[in-house]
Amino acid sequence: MTYSLVARDGNQWGVAVQSKFLAVGSVVPWAEPDVGAIATQAYANPRYGPEGLALMREGLSAAEVVERLVSVDDGRAERQLGVVDAHGTSAAWTGPDCMDWAGHRTGDGYAAQGNILVSAATVDALAETYESAAGRPLAERLIDCLAAAQEAGGDSRGQQSAALLVVERNRGYAGLSDVLVDLRVDDHPTPIKELRRLYTLHDRLFGETPRADWLQLKGALADEVRDRLAQLGYGSLDAWAGVANLEERVDGNDAIDPVVLEALRDEDPPSR
Description:
Elements: E1 2-9, E2 12-19, E3 29-32, E4 36-42, H1 48-57, H2 62-71, E5 79-85, E6 90-94, E7 103-107, E8 110-115, H3 121-131, H4 138-151, E9 161-167, E10 179-185, H5 191-206, E11 215-216, H6 219-232, H7 237-243, E12 255-256, H8 258-266
Antiparallel strand pairs: 1-2, 1-8, 2-9, 3-4, 4-5, 5-6, 7-8, 9-10, 11-12
Helix pairs in contact: 1-2, 3-4, 4-5
């Protein structure tokens, strides 16, 4: 009832998943920076997530983790599992009793898997889309993989929920979290489209624009920003950004992130 892709790209590890299942993000995706990522699905064993990460933390490879988890699980015939370890080595398991179509495909830095699918084309689309998108942000690649898999047939029962989890050491909120992206669509007629919308919003609030692309706050632009802030009732860019949830994109008063400037220009002053 689920298809997913687990991947490592540089210093990031991530999982993307879609299913005809309520709140799939609460069960399937697990990831830890510098350790690995896991998807546990089909008749999922949620313990595969924390136990698999613990094994990789001890130094076991993806293949060793799959073997260790599956070998002691009496329900392994109905389980499906995808793992990518700290080095980007991948491994997967599809139990013989998983409902058709069920299978997996692994490659350099990723594991793609699915069950109760229309056909193998869904897993092939996951893998081939990922392989063809090298160089783009991992979160975007993962969402594109889900969209391609759905276009190829997807879950034979339809759509309901989707999730995206990406981790990187000290690259989450305020540099104090390892969770770069953690978005879930728990119940929606088109969950992948909604996940992409949420990611676009997330990137707008918490993404990064190279400092070289910031605009110098001087002359007419400085006057415009000061006037707009005054019209909105704020004495500083920091004060407005804190309310607008854009504080992660503000750094000093000498330059402004173009994303912040666009948001400021889009905000209407309060009616009098």
